[in-house]
Amino acid sequence: MGRQDSNDDDSRERLPSMQELEPSPVEDTPDLERDSYFPKESTAPPSERPSARSSTLGLSGGGGHGVAYYLMRIQKYSSYTASAFLVMHITNTSLIPLATRSVNASENYLLLTRPYYQSPFAEPLVVALPIVAHVVSGIALRIYRRHQIGKRYDKQLYTRAERRRFSDWPKVSATSVLGFTLWPLVTGHILVNRVLPLWAEGDSSGVGLGYVSHGFAKYPVVATTLYAALVGVGSWHFVKGWAKWMGWAPEQVGDGISVGSASQKRRRRWLTHVVSAFVASLWMAGGLGVVGRGGAAKGWIGRGWDDLYARIPLSQKLF
């Protein structure tokens, strides 16, 4: 009896600490896989809103900001700069060629805008830094959230198997999958069009739309496949990402239980696909339809570009 009473006392002593635990973060935490990196704003009056909890995943109580707060802001605001560069880049390499129907005529517009994002000072700030910050902050946020989830479960209250299940990596959303797929495609694009000319010739001023057209003409299958993958994955990732930032993503509609919210989710999902397909089609119309059909360069310019493409690792086997 005495041992049983002591066990009951121990259970009662543990009860308050169990009551202070917040709901399971796997179910209730608004993160990338469920809502967004940003919780929905409460529409209740301030007097009816619940008081701040003692701790959340990365958001400390008392008005302070934790690690996740700043990682989320870096993830969001770095996409603004990257998107601005993307719009400028698509305009130069796709929309203007689509309007002029000529690679040579489009080169002049490319030369006019190139100093704004390819100068020694602008390129690291406008292109490199936002892209790297966006990717690194997203990965760091997932690692930090998993670490915080593991810390929320007391070893005395949960078995090792239960803690391991709670600490599994969060489910990767479609937007994240697209982002992870896009990263090597963008890296390859940068290596071929920026790093390779700088490394081989010390300058990339001679690389423009003609250089890209030459690559399409010499290696049509590989170039078309990789370009289509880059445009397709990039379009869906950007559109879905901006839908989340703007609060228009399908998963940000209510709780999905009522018929109205379910139909609204479907409409948003279809709208996201339609907009993504439109962006990809417009992008490819100029990129593949005009630049991709510009033909190979001749003379010493063509031979120089052949030498550049030949320096790509495994180029002889792939091409």
**Main sheet overview:** none
**Alpha carbon gyration radius:** 26 Å
Counting DSSP E segments of at least 2 residues, the number of strands comes to 0
Q: Helix and strand succession?
A: HHHHHHHHHHHH
Mean pLDDT across all residues, rounded?
Answer: 78
Please tally the helical runs, counting DSSP H or I stretches of 4 or more residues: 12
General form: globular
Question: Can you tell me the residue ranges where pLDDT is under 50 for at least 5 consecutive residues?
Answer: 11-62
State the end-to-end distance.
81 Å
Strand fraction equals: under 5%
Helix/strand-derived category reads: mainly alpha
What percent of the residues sit in helical stretches (DSSP H or I)?
A: 55-70%
